[in-house]
Each structure stands twice: as structure tokens, then as C-alpha cells.
Backbone:
């Protein structure tokens, strides 16, 4: 059972570290980190700590392989989205920066917010790893945060010069699910 726990923790750490990398090196900020992004960061850190605690204390569920599959899917989707946006200059979640580019290729062809979808895939994957219902708290808070961030970004996009083009794109593309 030790090898299973280490494997689950390794996949979890890979996702968490990739997301953390993006926070510092992929997204841009025109000022201090927005409060909403600080909430996301703190909640993510707490959720990762809870996940790690329950896995390390041996409360691994029989569904732990689902965590691995979803973690790989999350990481692959995240990497694809980073690749699609490497030159787009995306801002942090909850930023008030007016959007200047509309990306509709790569994963954006299927969903409007593939970063948030990849994060949520991982966070809900952690819930399958343990037998503790406490692991659901962080992902549910993060779901609320990402929905709020996505709606905020969509309002900013609607008010930008790209508003009409974005409305057409949004009409044919799902928010987090194709």
C-alpha cells in the first residue's frame, strides 16, 4: 500500500507544482496579486495539505487509480493550454486587466476556460484518492472561485473591443465542459 500512496502523492505533487509554476512564470500581473487569486492560492495550498495528510495517514480509497487517470488528464490539458497561450500574455485570475487577445485554438476550441477546467479536474481527482469527505471542501471552494473568476473574465471580454467576437465564440463553446 506504500507504493500506491507514493504514486498518488507523486502525481498530485506534479499537478500542484505545474500549477504553481504557472502562477509565477506563465501569467502576468499589472500590480499586486488580486485578492481572489490570493484566496485561490491559499485554498489550493490548504487542499493540497489535506489531500497529502489523508494519503500519508493511510486513508487511501479503492478508487485511488481514478486519481491517477484524472491527474494525468489534468496535467496534459494544462500543458496543452500553456502551449496555446504562451504568447498571449494572460493575466492572473481576478485581474481587472482589459483583455487584448481572444484565443480560440487548441483547447480553447472545446472550452472557454481550459485552465480552470484542468485545475478542477485535478482537485476533484484528489477526492477519489481518500476515504475522507474533508477532501471535498477545497475543491468545492475552488469550483466557486473558478466560476466567479470565469464570469468576471467573460464580463471584461464582453466590454472589450473583442466583445462581439467573444459572444459568438461563447455561444458555441462550453465554459468548462465541451
Residues:
Amino acid at each position: 500500500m506504500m507504493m500506491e500512496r507514493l504514486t498518488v502523492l507523486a502525481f498530485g505533487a506534479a499537478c500542484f507544482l505545474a500549477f504553481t509554476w504557472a502562477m509565477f512564470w506563465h501569467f502576468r500581473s499589472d500590480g499586486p496579486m488580486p485578492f481572489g487569486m490570493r484566496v485561490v492560492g491559499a485554498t489550493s495550498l490548504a487542499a493540497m495539505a489535506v489531500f497529502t495528510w489523508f494519503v500519508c495517514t493511510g486513508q487511501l480509497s479503492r478508487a485511488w487509480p481514478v486519481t491517477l487517470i484524472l491527474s494525468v488528464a489534468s496535467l496534459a490539458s494544462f500543458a496543452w493550454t500553456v502551449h496555446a497561450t504562451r504568447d498571449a500574455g494572460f493575466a492572473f485570475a481576478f485581474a481587472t486587466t482589459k483583455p487584448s487577445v481572444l484565443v480560440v485554438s487548441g483547447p480553447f476550441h472545446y472550452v472557454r476556460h481550459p485552465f480552470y477546467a484542468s485545475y478542477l479536474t485535478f482537485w476533484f481527482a484528489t477526492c477519489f484518492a481518500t476515504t475522507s469527505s474533508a477532501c471535498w471542501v477545497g475543491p468545492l471552494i475552488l469550483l466557486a472561485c473558478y466560476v466567479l473568476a470565469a464570469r468576471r473574465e467573460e464580463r471584461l471580454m464582453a466590454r472589450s473591443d473583442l466583445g462581439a467576437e467573444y459572444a459568438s465564440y461563447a455561444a458555441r463553446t462550453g465554459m468548462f465542459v465541451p
